[in-house]
Design brief:
- It is a single chain.
- This protein is α/β, with parallel strands linked by helices.
- Helix content is 24%, strand content 27%.
- The chain has a single domain, classed as Spore Coat Polysaccharide Biosynthesis Protein SpsA, Chain A (Alpha-Beta Complex), CATH 3.90.550.10.
- The longest helix is centred in the N-terminal third of the chain and has 10 residues.
- The radius of gyration is 17 Å and the shape is globular.
Length: 242
Amino acid sequence: MSEIKIEDIDTAILCGGLGTRLKDLTKDIPKPMVDIHGQPFLDILIKYVCSFGFKRFILCSGYKSEVISKYYSKKEDGIEYVFSKEEVPLGTGGALVQAKKLIRSKVFLCLNGDSICQVNLKNFYNFHLIKKAKASIALTSVDEPHNYGRIALNENQEIIQFSEKGPSKVDGNLINTGVYLMDRELINSFPSNKKLSLEYDMFPAFTQNNLHGYIDKAELFDIGTPERLNKLRKHFQPKESR
């Protein structure tokens, strides 16, 4: 795999979730736009990615997509924003199928739009290149892995088991952070015109197909529940207010 500079790698952010467990806070906005100390959560996620040199973002939106497109189309921050709108919910995999025509780079970064794990994206990309992977997932460890997608690796850091939330045969506490590097052409193997989950439908099928796991110690934060949202707000509280 020939090396592509980070600034030339596109980032797709999956922003299509309904946020049903945050309905009192997100009834008029998509979940990634929930307020975090005066700015949308999505701003925090994008600023973190930009700190490594990424410059082009494909925002894959669904519910209340106009809120995202209106906000980011007015941004004048030197970043390019492109919008992929779902007319019906497509899931995380289906959203990438729809957005593929907008992804320019051979390798692209993909992030869940409702969580943040501040892994070192430069080291993650170098790992992806060294392993000559078709897809790589950034992993971290947690005390209660049953609340997340658990992953098992072999000695070469290839993913050999992938299990979503709940009871699992996968041992250990390594979890999926929702931070991925993928070959754009891999999307060609995704079924089209249907709702599709990366976590449930696609990644388990790739465990024998050059799928690698990069381990980082960064903590995972998400906005999936009011309790987790409060934890994230506390962590990202402005320094002068702490």
